[in-house]
Amino acid sequence: MIDISEGVVPAVEDLNPFHIAQQQFDLAVRYMPDASAGLVEFLRRPDRTLTVEFPIETEDGVVHNFVGYRVLHSRVRGPGKGGIRFHPQVTADEVRALASWMSWKCAVADIPFGGAKGGVVCNPKELTTQDLRRITRRYISELGDSIGPHTDVPAPDVNTTAQTMAWIYDTYQMMHPGQNNLPVVTGKPVDMGGSHGRREATARGCLFATQRLLERGGVPGLDLVGGSSVVVQGFGNAGSIAAQLFAEAGAKIIAVSDSRGAIAASEGLDPDAVIAHKEITGSVVGFPGSVPMSNEELLAMPCDILIPAALENQIRLDNVGTISAKMIAEAANGPTTPAADRYLNERGVPVLPDILANSGGVTVSYFEWVQNIENEQWEEDEVNSKLHHKMRRATDAVIDAQARINDSLEELAALSGDASLRPIGLRTAAYVLAIGRVAKVAVQRGIWP
Ligand code: NAD
After folding, report:
1. In whole angstroms, what is the distance from residue 311 CA to residue 314 CA?
2. pTM
3. Which of 117, 188, 278, 390 is catalytic?
4. Does ligand 1 lie within 6 Å of residue 365's CB atom?
5. Which of 72, 195, 202, 336 supports an S-S bond with 80, CB 3.0-4.6 Å?
């Protein structure tokens, strides 16, 4: 075991997201003595990684070449499902990690999808709307029939929006006229087949999971979101709406950040006003009455609930010792490294893991897909109440799995011959639950042919 509490910091942490996803998977499998080795190896790797390279003539008349990926991790439980990210630091391994997290997330949420993810290496801050439209259309046409309403269904992620999803639908519709193509992509504008509540779903699901964890007594010294102090890292779709919804539930948002910096206000920030400020200035920084700080200082702020809602690897071995939150709710994917996670678990800081905490997004994407197939549109209340039910059930299943495993450690150690098994946190419990659900269906279906 790494004793980082004594200040013994090991050499450099491996921050490759796919290596991290595999470490998380491997740790969970140690608590699954019945899992067969061949099946484990099959579920550990993605089924397919597509790389596409294509040119775009940008608005200034220059031809630029872009690289895009689409990874399908697993279709055991249903079509691939996962967002598309536009970011300069996208790599094949990042997309592989995100795709595998989608498989486990869909299984934890108990929705009939596998895991997939896409990404294009580009910097949206340096591109115009027309450039982004061309990149989206060309990327989707290059992917061709590897996506489809019943094979692999994209959605929004970092730097992609409902507008991007509208272009994806339109491109796919041009390629496949004469059929109902609405379910090919989720997170669309509500006017063209999007679901009410999808825009808020990731953050709302995160709130519901947090509320359920607190109701179940999962965080020592914290019973309610109402009256709690909350810090949010990242102020896009997931983060800004989490700030709004947690504030609506009675929490005080004491600090928020985006890629340009962080702001704090001990008496609490008004998320609506910060969103309005960001719309005008492009950043939360400079919000009147707030104190500027660095992202590192933001993560270290004493608070009840810390919500990372930006990118991967934000809470690492080198800064985890500064975390002063009572709990962490991962709205982002992969914000905590395995070593940091182990440290938090040993210190008794519960972490609602990404594959549970942000599963509200894909859950309402699933609702959108169902509505599209049935040519229906549900009311927002119906969507939110179904989401509440799903999040509560998923959170209960993870908490129960954790208790079940930690109560039977001796038995598991005897069965697996691994005497080093230690009590697990919510992340490993969520993985055991998810891998078990996917493995069960894989066995029921049988290995083809
Ligand atoms: P977004 O593009 O809407 O917002 C990202 C935000 O993070 C922006 O405010 C950006 O400025 C900020 N940011 C980037 N780097 C940062 C840094 N170093 N420090 C602080 N802030 C930083 O993206 P999003 O859709 O909100 O996604 C955020 C996270 O949530 C990602 O990990 C994504 O995979 C995850 N997620 C999103 C959804 C969804 O439905 N959008 C669903 C599940 C998970």
Report:
1. 7
2. 0.96
3. 117
4. no
5. 72
